Amino acid sequence: MDQLVKPADTAVEAVRAALKETFGDRLQTGATLCEQHANTATGRGTQPPDMVVYPETTQEVATIARLCHAHCVPLIPFGAGSSLEGQLNAPCGGVSIDMMKMDTIKEINPEDLIAVVGPGITRKRLNTELRHTGLQFPIDPGADASIGGMCATRASGTNAVRYGTMAENVLSLEAVMADGTVIRTGSRAVKSAAGYDLTRLLIGSEGTLGIITEVTLRLRGIPEETIGGVAGFPDLDSAVAAVIIMVQIGLDVGRVELLDPTQIRACNAYSNLTLPEVPTLFFECTGTDAAARDTARLFAEIAEEQGAQSIEWTAAREARNKLWQARHDSYWAALALRPGCKGLVSDACVPISELAANITAARDDLEARGLIGTILGHVGDGNFHVVLMTDPEDSAEAEHVEAFLKGITQRAQACGGTCTGEHGIGQGKIASLADEAGASLGVMQAVKAALDPRNILNPGKMFAVAGQGA
Amino acid sequence: MDQLVKPADTAVEAVRAALKETFGDRLQTGATLCEQHANTATGRGTQPPDMVVYPETTQEVATIARLCHAHCVPLIPFGAGSSLEGQLNAPCGGVSIDMMKMDTIKEINPEDLIAVVGPGITRKRLNTELRHTGLQFPIDPGADASIGGMCATRASGTNAVRYGTMAENVLSLEAVMADGTVIRTGSRAVKSAAGYDLTRLLIGSEGTLGIITEVTLRLRGIPEETIGGVAGFPDLDSAVAAVIIMVQIGLDVGRVELLDPTQIRACNAYSNLTLPEVPTLFFECTGTDAAARDTARLFAEIAEEQGAQSIEWTAAREARNKLWQARHDSYWAALALRPGCKGLVSDACVPISELAANITAARDDLEARGLIGTILGHVGDGNFHVVLMTDPEDSAEAEHVEAFLKGITQRAQACGGTCTGEHGIGQGKIASLADEAGASLGVMQAVKAALDPRNILNPGKMFAVAGQGA
């Protein structure tokens, strides 16, 4: 990334002065606030922006973009700050544009199953507001991320096997482009063949192509019935085999998550559960009352055929919520296994037939290197994570961690998978994307150069571009 | 489109001579063949290419692209020829690249639910080859289109309400870009957050950004049970209301199609049915045995609450196939209502709450103008079509047809919908896209200019670009 060029101090000062005049106290330059707006969830160091600005309207975002564009000063969109690959760091300084004040729900339309929201609303607050409608926005990446940030990183999570990722659940975006142009990428119709799919081009672009200022979301009816359960298996292969069969016969499972024995041990301790410490599937079947029951029954049959020793049903809402809360708290549960440690989460997605082999290889490598970690996966999608508990002071361990993460990526890519299923590229996986994308990296770079010729939008992320500046 | 510039005769001749040398008899210049490769399904005239070439490998496609790029000669990808908006016309002449020899199935992987195919295979042949696997490729636009063409136009059809469009069912593309670079846009994993979504950028780009040379498709298990039926309603509003409720409560219907009384009359005559000539829903519920039955029962309850007079069940495969064959033949059935006529099909997609009003307005306008047409819709998606039976010799009628089609588009756009749900832009809807896209049209044009700076890929389609040629 040595081609990253910081803007001239005079340019940054000109932007600061102009923003101060327009935004008053909604422009902040304090060191602590700036550091909070740089992402530190990764192992890498914090690279704070020069200032943080809080727009409240699309037109304000456009004003900020025009100013940064004129002065070639970086502009980094910030949501809930829950991204994991350094997406929010500011290696060239510049302006962090905090979108969290743009958090209104502009419309909930139960007839069309649409919500129109500002990018700053978090998914939990949105679902709270939807609670009396019988509708939900099902995409659930674990963290209480902002909807704008979830768009920008193409988030998914436990419900993706049933409802898809953000790419399948956004109808249209309003966005401010690098030069301040405001565009709308789609309509309120659930499908369209009208021109290039700019919605999907912006989703997953990690703030490098435009700043999302409004999101038209697709809502879903909450199914009549949800029946969940826990199944313990003698080994990893049999747990994964059960899921493969389920996917193959077209069984619509709502969620199906794999947790390895170490993760189960962590969850038992942290969330006060008493599950056997074996490879375990958490699953949920949804639908009409009869459909959910029938699907659950079939899934249980498949699991038993694959050797599941115990299936514990959780039809009651409280038991189910307790189970899935434990799943969501699995990161914190894992960290509690090694007090004082720092957590690092890997992310790879592979064809499902390769999942057991990839997870086994990760487990073996973990043990060979003497690292401490748990493994869990959105197994219906072939997406899995290793939560590493690392000692940030131990440099020998840090080398092992780096090699371990590289191994995860390389094995995933070698078997036809991808270096990231849902966390994105950010700063952490620039080299991995280059390996994976091959000649298509040049196409991405050409699109970036066409839409942000001055490279002001979140520079230093996703891939190297020709030198910053006009 | 007056900025469209034909290439110099010498350039075309240079390309012809070079292709002849490389491809021999796989290069053809006969007038009839060239005319067959220009699209005539629209009302507009045929604009034939100068030649047709039949590549058999990706490297041959790259050779052709490099040659056309060097000489600034247009290159128009051709599949089954079933597109409806003039996507295959060659307003500047050039080379039609017929992809139908690249029709191999390279891999069917039942474990990962993946098929890797050449772009020239048709969806029916693919499903025939899949028949012993228990898997299907469900996207069904009616015509026996090629998979490559379905990608290029973002096709969908009757199954989209359950399985989504091509955008949701392609994992990765191999494509040859304008300068001959070969890229791969994705992996074999079912989801990814690795860089810009070039798969979705190419899907729906109508051959203007790249030539698709290989498609990695997502397959689906054939559900255990399918229960279908026909429900007749007292009026359009009640039929649509039943579907809205179904969507809102999250009922997973496999297919649900609306046919207006004129279309039912046409189908009765053409397909030997005896359905009451009222607004009618064809529907299909799928899942496990119990799930399909339960869903169908619930759907029937909703339909009856909305006033459905008669529900005829078609659990038996033959009855169901007869019904859906009639639906697929509805275009031909409609044409048979006016022997000797030419068919023209509109395409708009609206928020479902606006569907009844849009269809009613279309019906009223049809009657006011004295035009003959039937209305049908993929009603779960808000997508509807009017099949017009026109007399190509009658110029007064032609003016009414144009105004009628314009009205369909304008009403759809005015209520938050789109001018095309699945047929695309081609030549027919360039003005409509410009109206609908607003400032985002400039983003599309910038992407096009970045990836095809000489405008050789399917020029004159989708939108106007700066003058052709380097």
Characterise this structure.
Two copies of one chain form a homodimer. Chain A is built from 16 helices and 19 strands. The model of chain A has no long low-confidence stretch (mean pLDDT 93). Chain A is α+β, with helices and mostly antiparallel strands. In chain A, a hairpin with a 4-residue loop joins strand 18 and strand 19 (383-390). At the A-B interface, strand 9, helix 7, strand 11, helix 8 and helix 10 of A face strand 9, helix 7, strand 11, helix 8 and helix 10 of B.
Terminus-to-terminus distance of chain A: 18 Å
In the CATH hierarchy, the architecture of the domain at 101-221 in chain A is 2-Layer Sandwich
Question: Over the alpha carbons, how many angstroms does the gyration radius of chain A reach?
Answer: 22 Å
Assembly state? homodimer
Number of helices in the DSSP assignment of chain A: 16
Portion in helices of chain A = 25-40%
Overall body shape of chain A: globular
Mean pLDDT of chain A: 93
Please specify the SSE layout and strand pairing:
Two copies of one chain form a homodimer.
Chain A: H1 9-23, E1 27-28, H2 31-36, E2 51-53, H3 58-71, E3 75-78, E4 95-98, E5 105-109, E6 114-117, H4 123-129, E7 135-136, H5 147-152, H6 160-163, E8 170-177, E9 182-184, H7 198-202, E10 210-218, E11 220-221, E12 225-232, H8 236-248, E13 253-259, H9 261-271, E14 280-287, H10 289-305, E15 310-314, H11 317-328, H12 330-336, E16 342-345, E17 348-349, H13 355-368, E18 373-378, E19 383-390, H14 395-414, H15 430-437, H16 440-451
Parallel strand pairs in A: 2-4, 3-4
Antiparallel strand pairs in A: 1-2, 5-6, 6-10, 7-11, 8-9, 8-10, 12-14, 12-15, 13-14, 13-18, 16-19, 17-19, 18-19
